[in-house]
Protein backbone atom coordinates (compact mmCIF):
# COMPACT_ATOMS: atom_id res chain seq x y z
CA UNK A 1 0.00 0.00 0.00
CA UNK A 2 1.38 3.38 -1.05
CA UNK A 3 0.57 6.49 0.98
CA UNK A 4 0.53 9.59 -1.20
CA UNK A 5 0.04 13.19 -0.11
CA UNK A 6 -1.45 15.72 -2.51
CA UNK A 7 -1.64 19.30 -1.22
CA UNK A 8 -4.38 21.30 -2.92
CA UNK A 9 -5.43 24.92 -3.17
CA UNK A 10 -8.36 23.90 -5.42
CA UNK A 11 -6.62 25.32 -8.51
CA UNK A 12 -6.40 23.61 -11.88
CA UNK A 13 -2.73 22.94 -11.14
CA UNK A 14 -3.49 20.96 -7.99
CA UNK A 15 -6.28 19.09 -9.78
CA UNK A 16 -3.81 18.12 -12.52
CA UNK A 17 -1.51 16.68 -9.86
CA UNK A 18 -4.31 14.59 -8.38
CA UNK A 19 -5.41 13.39 -11.81
CA UNK A 20 -1.84 12.45 -12.80
CA UNK A 21 -1.29 10.56 -9.54
CA UNK A 22 -4.52 8.57 -9.94
CA UNK A 23 -3.48 7.63 -13.47
CA UNK A 24 0.17 6.87 -12.72
CA UNK A 25 -0.69 4.59 -9.79
CA UNK A 26 -3.73 2.98 -11.41
CA UNK A 27 -2.41 -0.55 -10.79
CA UNK A 28 -1.09 0.11 -7.28
CA UNK A 29 -3.05 0.02 -4.03
CA UNK A 30 -2.89 3.58 -2.69
CA UNK A 31 -4.28 5.83 -0.04
CA UNK A 32 -4.32 9.42 -1.29
CA UNK A 33 -4.40 12.14 1.35
CA UNK A 34 -5.76 15.31 -0.23
CA UNK A 35 -4.57 18.14 2.01
CA UNK A 36 -5.73 21.74 2.11
CA UNK A 37 -3.80 24.12 4.37
CA UNK A 38 -5.41 27.43 5.21
CA UNK A 39 -4.14 30.43 7.13
CA UNK A 40 -4.30 30.09 10.89
CA UNK A 41 -6.40 33.26 10.93
CA UNK A 42 -9.19 31.38 9.17
CA UNK A 43 -9.47 28.71 11.86
CA UNK A 44 -12.16 28.65 14.54
CA UNK A 45 -10.21 31.04 16.75
CA UNK A 46 -8.62 33.81 14.73
CA UNK A 47 -5.48 35.65 15.70
CA UNK A 48 -5.50 34.22 19.26
CA UNK A 49 -8.84 35.84 19.97
CA UNK A 50 -12.13 34.19 20.85
CA UNK A 51 -13.86 35.49 17.75
CA UNK A 52 -15.28 32.55 15.82
CA UNK A 53 -15.52 32.78 12.04
CA UNK A 54 -18.64 32.61 9.96
CA UNK A 55 -19.97 29.03 9.71
CA UNK A 56 -20.27 29.28 5.93
CA UNK A 57 -16.57 30.19 5.65
CA UNK A 58 -15.62 27.48 8.13
CA UNK A 59 -17.04 24.66 6.06
CA UNK A 60 -16.33 25.95 2.56
CA UNK A 61 -12.83 24.44 2.35
CA UNK A 62 -14.00 21.06 3.64
CA UNK A 63 -16.87 21.11 1.17
CA UNK A 64 -14.41 21.78 -1.65
CA UNK A 65 -12.19 18.95 -0.44
CA UNK A 66 -15.09 16.53 -0.47
CA UNK A 67 -16.18 17.74 -3.90
CA UNK A 68 -12.63 17.20 -5.17
CA UNK A 69 -12.56 13.66 -3.83
CA UNK A 70 -15.97 12.87 -5.33
CA UNK A 71 -14.79 14.22 -8.66
CA UNK A 72 -11.55 12.23 -8.81
CA UNK A 73 -13.35 9.05 -7.75
CA UNK A 74 -15.81 9.58 -10.58
CA UNK A 75 -13.12 10.33 -13.18
CA UNK A 76 -10.83 7.47 -12.08
CA UNK A 77 -12.98 4.79 -10.42
CA UNK A 78 -10.59 2.31 -8.86
CA UNK A 79 -11.28 -0.13 -5.99
CA UNK A 80 -7.57 -0.05 -5.11
CA UNK A 81 -7.62 3.69 -4.45
CA UNK A 82 -8.82 5.35 -1.28
CA UNK A 83 -9.07 9.14 -0.95
CA UNK A 84 -9.03 10.91 2.40
CA UNK A 85 -9.52 14.64 2.88
CA UNK A 86 -7.37 16.58 5.35
CA UNK A 87 -8.02 20.17 6.38
CA UNK A 88 -5.35 21.95 8.42
CA UNK A 89 -4.49 25.50 9.48
CA UNK A 90 -1.05 27.03 9.82
CA UNK A 91 2.30 26.90 8.05
CA UNK A 92 2.28 24.69 4.94
CA UNK A 93 5.77 23.24 5.39
CA UNK A 94 5.25 22.44 9.08
CA UNK A 95 1.95 20.72 8.34
CA UNK A 96 3.32 18.79 5.36
CA UNK A 97 6.22 17.56 7.52
CA UNK A 98 3.80 16.51 10.27
CA UNK A 99 1.53 14.75 7.80
CA UNK A 100 4.44 12.93 6.15
CA UNK A 101 5.45 11.61 9.56
CA UNK A 102 2.00 10.78 10.93
CA UNK A 103 0.58 9.20 7.76
CA UNK A 104 3.86 7.52 6.73
CA UNK A 105 3.77 9.25 3.36
CA UNK A 106 5.82 7.67 0.55
CA UNK A 107 5.39 10.44 -2.01
CA UNK A 108 4.15 14.03 -2.27
CA UNK A 109 2.53 15.03 -5.56
CA UNK A 110 2.16 18.75 -6.29
CA UNK A 111 0.92 20.74 -9.25
CA UNK A 112 2.63 23.86 -10.50
CA UNK A 113 2.45 26.27 -13.38
CA UNK A 114 4.14 24.88 -16.47
CA UNK A 115 5.77 26.62 -19.40
CA UNK A 116 4.05 27.80 -22.56
CA UNK A 117 7.38 27.07 -24.20
CA UNK A 118 10.64 25.48 -23.06
CA UNK A 119 12.11 28.91 -22.36
CA UNK A 120 11.06 29.77 -18.83
CA UNK A 121 8.77 28.99 -15.98
CA UNK A 122 8.93 29.36 -12.21
CA UNK A 123 7.87 26.66 -9.80
CA UNK A 124 5.61 28.21 -7.19
CA UNK A 125 7.06 29.14 -3.83
CA UNK A 126 5.04 26.45 -2.03
CA UNK A 127 6.20 23.68 -4.35
CA UNK A 128 9.81 24.87 -4.21
CA UNK A 129 9.72 24.94 -0.42
CA UNK A 130 8.29 21.42 -0.21
CA UNK A 131 10.98 20.11 -2.58
CA UNK A 132 13.84 21.68 -0.66
CA UNK A 133 12.57 21.57 2.94
CA UNK A 134 10.63 18.30 3.31
CA UNK A 135 12.53 15.00 3.42
CA UNK A 136 10.17 13.06 1.20
CA UNK A 137 10.12 12.19 -2.50
CA UNK A 138 8.19 14.79 -4.50
CA UNK A 139 6.57 14.49 -7.91
CA UNK A 140 5.93 17.92 -9.50
CA UNK A 141 3.26 18.08 -12.22
CA UNK A 142 3.32 21.18 -14.48
CA UNK A 143 -0.04 22.42 -15.71
CA UNK A 144 0.55 21.35 -19.32
CA UNK A 145 1.55 17.77 -18.48
CA UNK A 146 -0.38 15.12 -20.38
CA UNK A 147 -1.98 12.64 -17.99
CA UNK A 148 -0.26 9.43 -19.01
CA UNK A 149 2.49 7.16 -17.75
CA UNK A 150 5.90 8.19 -19.10
CA UNK A 151 7.66 6.02 -21.67
CA UNK A 152 11.03 7.77 -21.35
CA UNK A 153 12.56 9.08 -18.11
CA UNK A 154 15.77 11.10 -17.89
CA UNK A 155 18.11 10.99 -14.89
CA UNK A 156 20.74 13.77 -14.96
CA UNK A 157 23.70 13.01 -12.68
CA UNK A 158 27.31 14.01 -12.24
CA UNK A 159 28.20 10.66 -10.58
CA UNK A 160 29.48 12.49 -7.49
CA UNK A 161 27.01 10.77 -5.19
CA UNK A 162 27.01 7.16 -4.09
CA UNK A 163 23.65 5.68 -5.03
CA UNK A 164 22.21 4.47 -1.74
CA UNK A 165 19.39 1.98 -1.36
CA UNK A 166 16.63 4.65 -1.00
CA UNK A 167 17.72 6.29 -4.27
CA UNK A 168 18.00 3.02 -6.19
CA UNK A 169 14.72 1.82 -4.73
CA UNK A 170 12.97 5.02 -5.85
CA UNK A 171 14.36 4.63 -9.36
CA UNK A 172 13.30 0.99 -9.43
CA UNK A 173 9.75 1.75 -8.30
CA UNK A 174 9.21 4.51 -10.83
CA UNK A 175 10.53 2.34 -13.67
CA UNK A 176 8.53 -0.71 -12.66
CA UNK A 177 5.30 1.26 -12.34
CA UNK A 178 5.74 3.09 -15.64
CA UNK A 179 7.64 0.38 -17.57
CA UNK A 180 9.65 3.30 -18.96
CA UNK A 181 13.16 3.46 -20.36
CA UNK A 182 15.73 5.34 -18.26
CA UNK A 183 18.25 7.69 -19.90
CA UNK A 184 21.12 8.47 -17.52
CA UNK A 185 22.55 11.85 -18.58
CA UNK A 186 25.92 13.34 -17.75
CA UNK A 187 26.68 16.84 -19.04
CA UNK A 188 30.19 18.25 -19.16
CA UNK A 189 31.83 21.24 -20.85
CA UNK A 190 34.75 19.12 -22.07
CA UNK A 191 35.72 15.48 -22.40
CA UNK A 192 34.87 13.75 -19.10
CA UNK A 193 37.76 13.40 -16.69
CA UNK A 194 36.22 11.39 -13.88
CA UNK A 195 37.64 11.06 -10.39
CA UNK A 196 38.02 7.60 -8.88
CA UNK A 197 34.80 8.01 -6.91
CA UNK A 198 32.88 9.07 -10.02
CA UNK A 199 34.16 6.02 -11.91
CA UNK A 200 33.09 3.75 -9.05
CA UNK A 201 29.67 5.40 -8.71
CA UNK A 202 28.99 5.20 -12.44
CA UNK A 203 30.01 1.53 -12.56
CA UNK A 204 27.84 0.73 -9.55
CA UNK A 205 24.79 2.41 -11.10
CA UNK A 206 25.45 0.71 -14.43
CA UNK A 207 25.73 -2.73 -12.80
CA UNK A 208 22.51 -2.17 -10.87
CA UNK A 209 20.55 -1.11 -13.94
CA UNK A 210 22.00 -3.94 -16.04
CA UNK A 211 20.79 -6.45 -13.48
CA UNK A 212 17.22 -5.14 -13.30
CA UNK A 213 16.63 -3.21 -16.52
CA UNK A 214 19.14 -4.60 -19.00
CA UNK A 215 17.32 -3.44 -22.14
CA UNK A 216 15.61 -0.44 -20.60
CA UNK A 217 18.40 2.01 -19.83
CA UNK A 218 21.24 3.92 -21.48
CA UNK A 219 24.14 6.15 -20.41
CA UNK A 220 24.57 9.40 -22.32
CA UNK A 221 27.54 11.78 -22.05
CA UNK A 222 26.77 15.23 -23.48
CA UNK A 223 29.18 18.05 -24.24
CA UNK A 224 27.63 21.44 -23.55
CA UNK A 225 28.47 24.83 -22.07
CA UNK A 226 25.29 24.97 -20.00
CA UNK A 227 24.10 22.01 -17.94
CA UNK A 228 20.57 23.38 -17.84
CA UNK A 229 20.30 24.07 -21.59
CA UNK A 230 21.87 20.72 -22.47
CA UNK A 231 19.38 18.83 -20.32
CA UNK A 232 16.42 20.79 -21.64
CA UNK A 233 17.53 20.19 -25.21
CA UNK A 234 17.92 16.48 -24.50
CA UNK A 235 14.40 16.38 -23.06
CA UNK A 236 12.94 18.05 -26.15
CA UNK A 237 14.91 16.01 -28.68
CA UNK A 238 14.36 12.60 -27.07
CA UNK A 239 10.69 12.79 -26.08
CA UNK A 240 11.49 12.60 -22.37
CA UNK A 241 8.27 12.47 -20.35
CA UNK A 242 9.65 12.63 -16.81
CA UNK A 243 12.80 14.09 -15.28
CA UNK A 244 14.25 12.78 -12.02
CA UNK A 245 16.98 14.18 -9.78
CA UNK A 246 18.51 13.46 -6.38
CA UNK A 247 17.74 16.32 -4.00
CA UNK A 248 20.97 15.68 -2.08
CA UNK A 249 23.03 16.43 -5.20
CA UNK A 250 22.82 20.16 -4.50
CA UNK A 251 25.46 21.23 -7.01
CA UNK A 252 23.73 19.64 -10.00
CA UNK A 253 20.29 20.47 -8.65
CA UNK A 254 21.13 24.17 -8.41
CA UNK A 255 22.67 24.22 -11.89
CA UNK A 256 19.50 22.81 -13.40
CA UNK A 257 16.79 24.47 -11.34
CA UNK A 258 17.99 27.55 -9.49
CA UNK A 259 18.23 31.05 -10.93
CA UNK A 260 21.23 32.54 -9.09
CA UNK A 261 19.45 32.04 -5.78
CA UNK A 262 18.23 28.99 -3.91
CA UNK A 263 15.01 30.91 -3.34
CA UNK A 264 13.99 31.03 -7.01
CA UNK A 265 13.44 27.57 -8.41
CA UNK A 266 12.92 27.31 -12.17
CA UNK A 267 11.36 24.31 -13.87
CA UNK A 268 11.79 25.07 -17.53
CA UNK A 269 9.80 22.32 -19.18
CA UNK A 270 6.32 20.85 -19.03
CA UNK A 271 7.41 17.31 -18.13
CA UNK A 272 6.93 16.05 -14.55
CA UNK A 273 9.85 16.34 -12.16
CA UNK A 274 10.53 13.50 -9.70
CA UNK A 275 12.80 14.60 -6.84
CA UNK A 276 14.30 11.79 -4.77
CA UNK A 277 15.25 12.16 -1.12
CA UNK A 278 17.19 9.69 0.99
TrEMBL record:
Q: Which residues form the signal peptide?
A: none
Pfam families attached to this UniProt entry: Usp
Q: Which SUPFAM superfamilies match?
A: Adenine nucleotide alpha hydrolases-like (SSF52402)
Q: Which residues form the UspA domain?
A: 1-142
Q: Which family does the record assign?
A: Belongs to the universal stress protein A family.
For this entry, the protein name equals Nucleotide-binding universal stress UspA family protein
Taxonomic source organism? Maribacter spongiicola
Taxonomic lineage is: Bacteria, Pseudomonadati, Bacteroidota, Flavobacteriia, Flavobacteriales
Amino acid sequence: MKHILIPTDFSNNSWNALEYAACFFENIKCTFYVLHVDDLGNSDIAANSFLTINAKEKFSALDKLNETIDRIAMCFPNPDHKFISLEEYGNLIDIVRKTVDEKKIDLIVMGTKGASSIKASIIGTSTGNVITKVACNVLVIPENTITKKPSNIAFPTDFNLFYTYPILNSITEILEISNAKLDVIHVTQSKPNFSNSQVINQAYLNDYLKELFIDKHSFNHILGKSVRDSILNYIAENEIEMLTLVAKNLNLFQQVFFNNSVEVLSHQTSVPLFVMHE
